[in-house]
């Protein structure tokens, strides 16, 4: 298992400086950079572990407006057909994607629509050695109405697509809010999970004793599945950021 950290909660620190500060702690990746940012950290000992699409003029590809709507597919294909080779050229092996919000759409139709939208992109992803990751997010607190908000739904989408270049990003914080039973779900669905995110709940802050999740046990369960991907910290620090990241990796090692 490798360790990474999402940049957005720590973006007050210049990117290259941030990479150079976290590398000695044992972090090997930074999550959710754009491909051009991924190139900036070459030579720091830290890679971009998963990339995201820059904001598009259409507003599509964001959390709220994505693959669960057929009318979005043509533009999303344009976005991802540019992003996938750009990610590969920047040395990134994973690209994030989202379901979009329900807006009255039932879960079965949303799943079918996501599959229809994603399937044409998978040969391109395979050609470039890219895995598309759909992130599981909570719709209770942070992202109201988001469709991919339960592990079973995401796993069903993986099974429908049946392709090794489509997997889930399992966000422990988000799934604790939505369904709990984190360790059981990791054990039951680990074959569909290619990346993890963390944060403390409630609050989305450090993963210490101030919150309810016991990360040493969760990490043990993840390791027992044979997971070899990135385990990414994505908490909002309340203390000195690098010290918080040092504490977090110690709890997850």
Helix-strand pattern, N to C? EHEHEHEHHEHEHHEHEH
Q: Tell me the CATH architecture.
A: Alpha-Beta Barrel
Terminal Cα separation, in Å?
9 Å
Strand order of the largest sheet: 3-2-1-8-7-6-5-4
Helical percent range?
25-40%
Taken from the alpha-carbon principal axes, the silhouette is globular
CATH topology: TIM Barrel
Description:
The protein is of the alpha/beta class and 253 residues long. It has one domain: Alpha-Beta Barrel (TIM Barrel), CATH 3.20.20.150. It is 38% helix and 16% strand. An 8-stranded parallel sheet has the order 3-2-1-8-7-6-5-4. Helix 6 links the parallel strand 5 and strand 6. It is globular and about 45 Å long.
Give descriptors for this structure.
253 residues, alpha/beta, 8 strands, isomerase activity
Nutshell version of this structure?
The protein is of the alpha/beta class. Helices cover 38% and strands 16% of the residues. The protein has one domain: Alpha-Beta Barrel (TIM Barrel), CATH 3.20.20.
What is the element layout, followed by pairings?
Layout: E1 2-6, H1 15-22, E2 29-33, H2 35-40, E3 47-51, H3 73-89, E4 94-97, H4 107-118, H5 122-127, E5 131-135, H6 151-161, E6 166-171, H7 172-178, H8 182-189, E7 193-198, H9 215-224, E8 230-233, H10 241-251
Parallel strand pairs: 1-2, 1-8, 2-3, 4-5, 5-6, 6-7, 7-8
């Amino acid at each position: 298992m490798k360790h990474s950290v999402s940049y957005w909660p720590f973006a007050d620190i210049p990117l290259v400086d941030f990479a150079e500060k976290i590398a000695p702690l044992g972090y090997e990746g930074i999550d959710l950079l754009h491909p051009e940012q991924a190139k900036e950290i070459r030579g720091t000992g830290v890679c971009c572990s998963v990339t995201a699409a820059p904001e598009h003029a259409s507003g599509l590809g964001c959390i709220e407006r994505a693959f669960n709507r057929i009318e979005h597919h043509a533009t999303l294909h344009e976005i991802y057909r540019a992003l996938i080779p750009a990610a590969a050229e920047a040395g990134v092996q994973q690209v994030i994607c989202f379901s979009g919000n329900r807006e009255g759409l039932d879960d079965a139709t949303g799943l079918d629509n996501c599959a229809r939208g994603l399937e044409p992109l998978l040969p391109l992803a395979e050609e470039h050695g890219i895995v598309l990751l759909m992130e599981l997010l909570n719709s209770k607190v942070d992202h109201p109405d988001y469709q991919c908000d339960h592990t079973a739904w995401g796993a069903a989408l993986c099974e429908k697509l049946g392709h090794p270049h489509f997997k889930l990003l399992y966000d422990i914080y988000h799934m604790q809010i939505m369904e709990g039973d984190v360790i059981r779900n990791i054990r039951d669905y680990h074959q569909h999970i290619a990346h993890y995110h963390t944060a403390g709940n409630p609050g989305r802050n450090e993963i210490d004793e101030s919150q309810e999740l016991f990360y040493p046990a969760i990490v043990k369960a993840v390791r027992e599945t044979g997971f070899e991907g990135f385990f990414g910290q994505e908490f909002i620090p309340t203390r000195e950021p690098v010290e918080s990241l040092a504490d977090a990796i110690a709890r997850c090692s």
